[in-house]
Amino acid sequence: MAKTSILASEAAHFGGLAGDWWDPKGASAMLHKLNPVRLGFVREQLDRHFGLDECDFAPLEGKRAMDVGCGAGLLTEPLARLGASVTGVDAAQELIEAARVHAAGQGLAIDYVAGEVAGVEGRFDLVTAMEVIEHVASPRDFLATLVSKLADDGLLILSTPNKTPLSRLLTITLAEGTGRIPKGTHDYDMFIPPEELAAMLAELGMEVIETKGIAFSPARGLHLSEDLRLNYLVSARKA
Questions:
Q1: With contact defined as beta carbons under 8 Å apart, do 27 and 179 qualify?
Q2: Which of 8, 128, 3 is nearest to 64 (CA)?
Q3: Gyration radius of the chain's alpha carbons
Q4: DSSP letters of 15-74?
């Protein structure tokens, strides 16, 4: 039997947030703020990797995408609007049910799957896993599964908090401590530094293309940055 990447406690925690996932002022408000930043990075990397027209409204037409740890579809739905045939996968059944309802209301045909990534058939031109790897049982095994689902010329994009005093302060002490993020969402011991993530990807035959930080300032809010101390995004391809 394949080793599971799912931690039951993590699935239960996030499943409990399904009710107001799409409320920009609800428990997932921080994800709503993060999503445009993540989507900007994704579009930039897609255009560069596949040589797409940056003015094309449906650049992923004819391509398959898989959003892992998709929640109720904050990133999954924009990928569908970009023209991709999209599969969203999450460990929490409650989130998948919320995702299906919301996608139907938007007129979007998205294949949502509750359970393991390993059980999804086929390979994908784009695989995303945003704020997921710090919640799994074995990061390396999780990455190996993602890589196995990637087409030969595919693009893998991840985001995760860095393991720094700043990320602990802002993400756990302040954000969770003041209720901006539900308490218990993060475990600092599971945060992964970018050099460690890059090393795991290299062991799996992947080459990191770009690493960008997600930083915060009172003037700009959350934005892409060269500062990796808080949170970062990585794009990678098969070496």
A1: no
A2: 128
A3: 17
A4: HTTGGGTT-TTSTTHHHHHHHHHHHHHHHHHHHHHHT--TT-S-TTTT-EEEEET-TTTT
Domain 8-238 belongs to what topology? Rossmann fold (3.40.50)
Give which of 134, 104, 102, 118 is closest to 18, Cα–Cα: 102
Structure tokens at 233: 């995004």
Q: Residues 103-136: pLDDT tens digits?
A: 999 999 999 999 999 999 999 999 999 999 999 9
CB 15 within 8 Å of CB 27: no
Per the structure block, which two tokens stand in for 162?
A: 């860095």
Average pLDDT over residues 167-196: 90
DSSP conformation class of 177: T
Listed as own residue / partner, the contacts of 144-148 with beta carbons closer than 8 Å and 24 or more positions apart are 144/204, 145/5, 145/117, 145/118, 146/68, 146/117, 147/201, 147/204, 147/205, 147/206, 147/238, 148/118
A 10 A CB-CB count for 166 gives: 16
* Closest to 118 in 3D by CA, of 200, 3, 9, 21: 3
Section 146-160 average pLDDT? 97
The strands making up 85-90's β-sheet, listed across from edge to edge, are 111-114, 85-90, 64-68, 124-130, 150-161, 231-238, 206-217, 221-225
pLDDT at 3: 54
User: Domain residues of the chain, as ranges?
Assistant: 8-238
pLDDT over 50 at 1, yes or no: no
Amino acid at 159: S
